[in-house]
Amino acid sequence: MNTYPHEYESSLQQPAKFWLQQAQRLHWFQEPQQGFELRSNGTAAWFPDGQLNLAFCALDYHVDDGRGEQTALIYDSPVADCKATYSYRELRDAVAQFAGLLKKQHVKKGDRVVIYMPMIPQAAIAMLACARLGAVHSVVFGGFAPHELAVRIDDAQPKLLITASCGIEVNRVIPYKPMVDDAIAQADHKPGNVIVWQREQCQAELQAPRDIDWQSAVSEVTPAECTVMQATDPLYILYTSGTTGKPKGVVRDTGGYAVALHYSMDTVYGVGAGDVMLTASDVGWVVGHSYIVYGPLLRGATTILYEGKPVRTPDASAFWRMCDDYRVKVLFSAPTAFRAIKKEDPEAKLLENYRLTSLERIYMAGERLDPPTLEWTQEVTGKPVFDHWWQTESGWPICANPVGITEYPVKPGSSTLPVPGYDIRILAPDGSEVEANEQGAVAIKLPLPPGCLTTIWGDEPRFIKGYLSEFTGYYSSGDGGYKDDDGYVFIMGRTDDVINVAGHRLSTGEMEEILAMDPAVAECAVIGVADELKGQIPLGLVIVKDGSNVDPDELSQRLVQRVRDSIGAVACLRQVYVVPRLPKTRSGKILRRLLRQLADGEQQLAIPSTIDDPNCVDELREQLQR
Ligand code: COA
Ligand code: AMP
Fold first, then answer.
1. Is the distance from the beta carbon of residue 124 to the nearest atom of ligand 2 less than 6 Å?
2. How many CA atoms does the CB half-sphere of 517 hold within 13 Å?
3. If you measure from the C-alpha of residue 118 to the centroid of ligand 1, how many angstroms do you get, rounded to a whole number?
4. Using a 6 Å cutoff on CB, does residue 387 contact ligand 2?
5. Which ligand is nearest to the CA of 567?
6. Tell me, what's the pLDDT at 610?
7. Using one digit for the tens of pLDDT, what is the confidence trace for 358-405?
8. Which atom of ligand 1 is nearest to the CA of 311?
9. Ligand 1 mean position to 237 CA, how many Å?
10. What is the chain's Cα-based Rg?
11. pLDDT value at residue 623
12. Mean pLDDT of all residues in the chain?
């Protein structure tokens, strides 16, 4: 039966009733009676009278419900040559014990805790322990450099920082502690303590009394109980790239997020209690928060925490091996991961060694799923493959194939239909709705459903200006796209200075700020250009100051290094060209779209009539093609 249209309509017509019904499926200390309260900015505060604890719902509830011996988490690390499993009871106990250590260090409800960890179970344990105490965690992706960590420390003002002695990238050990020390030295705010999980690949040097050895300290404390949280209390802050160098601290609430994730596990992923989900991402990204840690555990499923790459650890069969070994039902990663597998093993010969009998569906997000990757993955696995669109801000899918209620035919290039709760409209610059098949700004009519961001940490004006001001009564997603005649949504890309590199969201504005700091640089632009493997990669273009006789190659290398030192290797800025001029409008605005088209080698250029000097277009084309 086609139940999606009915469910979708009721989620929009009677949102409070719809979501209160969904909320009943979770364990509350005090069940909410009120669906939501409207804030003055037009967004909703969900379940304002509800009380719960998310770590309780994710762990204790299942233990109490008789699921204690079921596997909650599987750790699979080809880089550390290590595998481990935690039952729900073991994970609950480890979390309660570590929460006891946090409590001993005086961490309490509302305090912030920064987590800078590789993909090891302790990262999830640290997150859940914060949730247990009501402390607000802020996980910083391990690939970010000390400067990025320092910026986040200053913004979140954590009481304490949790880290590990090292991360492992393919076969390179990356000591984390020196980076943490460097970040704390750079930051104005100093966390009181640093808790360090020592890994055997590298022992960190600890500075007493600030630094605490996780393994030895945790055995000396008593486990902590769950703190009762209001549904509207913040669970975490997750920083994401905006258009400037200052990242935005997306704030997530507790109750709305729990209800939305739980709902999505059934509706979007078709994953229930006891099913196995492999989300190959990182806890430093929203995908990791929602579908490695909280979502599967809330649903009583088994989650796999994979410390490795889709290729090279040791080869392109890593995903297939895990699907076979752990009887995975649903596999989720970024399209770039499947492009990497396709590149190394185009005929999927390695797949012949594994059985995908348990695998029912493959999901991709983080960037648009390009039709060739969709088709290849479908063909070699013989499984349905679904694109779905969402953002750090939404916390869970905005558009997806609602397979748990009705499975729709896949249209390549589309992330299918709006998920119940999301009223998606495609708007023209004047705020009017465009016709089907016409492109515009993808906006969501307020109020947003549960689970979405509630504000920007410490900066409500930025939240309003960045998301709620462009179109009155709507949330602006920052993406452009269209709906077709069947209501399928096609996301065509960002309309701002954000790019997606290998599924990692980065700000070209931030890279420009770093390039502009070099004494030889007069002006610069960073654009995202198409890349076969990573989707997009950044490219820098700089004009040197008059009289500066710096060697262009040396300058280019220096600028690449500056970005790597400041943001981290994940920025992937590998090329910076010194150019004599940049195309601009007569009012001095750099024509970035034109630059992108030139760099991508497009023949049909969008040269606006307002261009200041049309001659520079051919000059640049020649230089970029060289
Ligand atoms: N810690 C430290 N360094 C890291 C890191 C981490 N957690 N993650 C990446 N890096 C480094 C890499 O070592 C690499 O460094 P190098 O320039 O010295 O080689 C650089 O950052 C770029 O990394 P990456 O973008 O991962 O490129 P890659 O060539 O190593 O791997 C892919 C390419 C496609 C295999 C990889 O990007 C991938 O698995 N992508 C999936 C991304 C994903 O899951 N995104 C989440 C959204 S769902
Ligand atoms: P992040 O906040 O890191 O999850 O990145 C969110 C951005 O990634 C979105 O605003 C989109 O630009 C892009 N994105 C994520 N998933 C998709 C998708 N399925 N299709 C198209 N773009 C996507």
1. no
2. 13
3. 12
4. yes
5. 1
6. 85
7. 999 999 999 999 999 999 999 999 999 999 999 999 999 999 999 999
8. 35
9. 23
10. 24
11. 83
12. 96
d(CA 210, CA 180): 12
Closest C-alpha residue for ligand 2 atom 21: 368
| N-to-C CA span, the chain | 58
Measure the CA dihedral 492/536/511/185, to 10°: 110
Is the CB of residue 503 below 6 angstroms from any atom belonging to ligand 1?
A: yes
Q: Which ligand is nearest to the CA of 393?
A: 2
Say if residues 238 and 392 touch (Cβ distance below 8 Å).
Answer: yes
CATH topology of domain 502-625: GMP Synthetase; Chain A, domain 3 (3.30.300)
How many angstroms is it from 541 CA to the middle of ligand 2?
25
Cβ neighbours of 156 (radius 10 Å): 24
The ligand with the least distance to the CA atom of 332 is 1
pLDDT bucket at 585, cuts 50 / 70 / 90: confident
Token pair, residue 127, equals 């997150």
Distance of CA 187 to the CA centre of its chain: 24
CA–centroid distance, 27 to ligand 1, in Å, is 38
CB-ligand 2 contact for 491 (6 Å cutoff): yes
Distance 570 CA to ligand 1 centre (A): 6
Q: Domain 4-308+388-480 belongs to what architecture?
A: 3-Layer(aba) Sandwich (3.40)
Is 454 a pocket residue for ligand 1 (Cβ < 6 Å)?
no
Q: Please name which ligand lies nearest the alpha carbon of 495.
A: 2
Length of the chain: 626
Q: In terms of Cα–Cα distance, which of 251, 216, 209, 214 is closest to 234?
A: 251
Domain with CATH 3.30.300.30 in the chain: 502-625
**Tens-place pLDDT, residues 38-95:** 999 999 999 999 999 999 999 999 999 999 999 999 999 999 999 999 999 999 999 9
Q: For ligand 1, is residue 373 a contact (CB within 6 Å)?
A: no
pLDDT tens-digit profile of 311-364? 999 999 999 999 999 999 999 999 999 999 999 999 999 999 999 999 999 999
Residues of the chain with CATH 3.40.50.12780: 4-308+388-480
Residue with CA nearest ligand 2 atom 23: 367
With cut-offs at 50, 70 and 90, classify the pLDDT of residue 619.
confident
Dihedral angle at the C-alpha atoms of 291, 297, 298, 299, nearest 10 degrees?
Answer: 90
* Angstrom distance (rounded) from CA 60 to CA 217: 23
